[in-house]
UniProtKB/TrEMBL annotation:
Localisation: Cell membrane; Cytoplasmic vesicle membrane; Cytoplasmic vesicle, Autophagosome; Cytoplasmic vesicle, Phagosome membrane
Organism: Lottia gigantea (Giant owl limpet)
Pfam families: Ras
Source organism phylogeny: Eukaryota, Metazoa, Spiralia, Lophotrochozoa, Mollusca
Domain of life: Eukaryota
Swiss-Prot/TrEMBL GO biological process terms: anatomical structure morphogenesis; protein transport; system development
Predominant place of localization: membrane
Protein known as: Ras-related protein Rab-23
GO cellular-component term (any): phagocytic vesicle membrane
Length: 233
């Protein structure tokens, strides 16, 4: 296969309390549908969609995880290898907002710091909101994360969430490609810290039993990343 035929694959996990709209968001994005019915996700599920970002073909693999704590042991295994994460809460569920930091920690405990966004879903129900705009914005500022308000039902801002995560990842990928002296960690990822814009600070490298550290050449970078992604280690 020629290198130009290859695509980049990105694994994104969508987490948050039960019924905030995680499955609906993934279905909306990958299948273009919305259903009113609530079917609790048992364990995990995934759908994928191809998009183009900066002339790169991206295969987004969106992992839908159960929001209930009883499934934590199962779902956390699927966080591994993720390069992006959506932390979702619902406009009409105060607990789901207060749980955002806990979800962030749960994911980071498994994969370290990866690109994340906070998503306030169900903004079509804004009249019944139990979270003030300022509170949500303050949380995003405190955690230094991009913040989106979405309505999966009305298809507002859903594409933007996943586009942002993809663009961020592509940006980092091109930084890795430019510098072949930096070690690349397979299975884990180029990390992002929104506090720091410098390349060195953006790139943290994990090395534990789950990972192999390689030094990629410029040419091979994309291939290596593609082959290494989306594998549950
Ligand atoms: N009004 C409104 N309802 C929504 C929206 N998104 C999802 N829902 C509804 O919220 C309910 C829960 O949605 P799900 O997508 O199943 O929630 P989940 O977060 O995947 O839930 P778990 O599987 O339990 O973790 C469903 O009845 C959806 O139809 C939205 O943007 N607006």
């Amino acid at each position: 296969m020629r290198e130009e035929d290859m695509e980049v694959a990105i694994k994104v996990v969508v987490v948050g309390n039960g019924a905030v709209g995680k499955s609906s968001m993934i279905q909306r994005y990958c299948k273009g549908i919305f259903t009113k019915d609530y079917k609790k996700t048992i364990g995990v599920d995934f759908l994928e969609r191809q998009i183009e970002v900066n002339n790169e073909d991206i295969r987004l693999m969106l992992w839908d995880t159960a929001g209930q704590e009883e499934f934590d042991a199962i779902t956390k295994a699927y966080y591994r290898g993720a390069q992006g994460c959506v932390l979702a809460f619902s406009t009409v569920d105060r607990d789901s907002f207060e749980a955002i930091e806990t979800w962030k920690k749960k994911v980071e405990n498994e994969v370290g710091e990866i690109n994340m966004v906070i998503v306030q879903n169900k903004i079509d129900l804004i009249d019944d909101a139990v979270v003030q705009d300022e509170e949500a914005e303050a949380l995003a500022k405190k955690l230094r994360l991009r913040f989106y308000r979405t309505s999966v039902k009305e298809n507002v801002n859903v594409d933007e969430v996943f586009r942002y995560l993809s663009e961020k990842y592509i940006q980092e990928l091109s930084m890795v490609s430019e510098d072949d002296s930096l070690p690349l960690t397979i299975g884990q990822d180029v990390q992002n810290d929104t506090k720091n814009s410098s390349k060195d600070k953006n790139l943290k490298h994990k090395n534990n039993n789950d990972t192999i550290t390689l030094k990629p050449s410029k040419k091979r970078t994309k291939k290596l990343l593609m082959n290494s992604k989306c594998v549950v280690l």
